[in-house]
Amino acid sequence: MKRSIYDTPIFFERYQQLRQNPISMNEVVEKPTMFSLLPDLTGKTVLDLGCGTGVHLAHYLALGAKKVVGLDLSELMLKQAENTLSTQWQKGEHFSLYCLPMERLSEIAESNFDVVTSSFAFHYIEDFATLLANISAKMTACGTLIFSQEHPIVTCYKEGYRWEKNEEKQQVAYRLNYYRDEGERDRSWFQQPFKTYHRTMATIFNQLIQAAFKICQVEEPMLATRPEWHNEFKDLQHRPPLLFVKAKKQK
Questions:
Q1: pLDDT tens digit string along 197-243?
Q2: Residue among 156, 71, 68, 189 nearest 119 (CA)
Q3: Which of 72, 87, 217, 229 could form a disulfide bond with 246, CB atoms 3.0-4.6 angstroms apart?
Q4: What are the Methyltransferase type domain coordinates in residue numbering (predicted)?
Q5: How far is it, in rounded angstroms, from Cα 79 to Cα 99?
């Protein structure tokens, strides 16, 4: 099984520092938007793909979920998730964790999930259509899928300058070179190489439709609607960093 980049000590340490920052993309943009899309979780079973340190799983249990299941490739993430969840809930009865890539979702014991979520992770998946089929197979009829991922106008980047700047070095436009060229992207964060995958908006929505999901809501949070972000996230006036989709499985 491939090793998670998050199990690289420096990568995990830097990630933790970012997550502890109260003014971060995760805290200010991702979590509030993701949680606003949730249905009533009372008595529901929930699967979180790419669950990380279990923050979302704990939130789902606090909202009344009967049981939550988390799947992540990182052993370090899951160790922290178990430590956090075990302080309030019983492992096995209230939560289960699996160290697996999303591509091996079919191997987990549980099924018939009412809600499946994934935060900031689907851009790591090469075969989105197959993943959607595997998710559907694990869901109840009319189950809800909610996910966020890097927005396609972000994942399209291959090379060159991301931003066009004026004479004062201010960001004035985000370049969309290579948007139509789908496929693998080589990335680096804290000098650690990893891969993501670019799909156009049309491909994402068409593959959801082909997998028999009805698209219920789409969100693209940007600066114009959130003035409180102005000082910290100035570049959000030009483009949304994340795409959020809420979809319902058809019978």
A1: 999 999 999 999 999 999 999 999 876 566 666 566 666 667 888 99
A2: 71
A3: 217
A4: 47-146
A5: 10
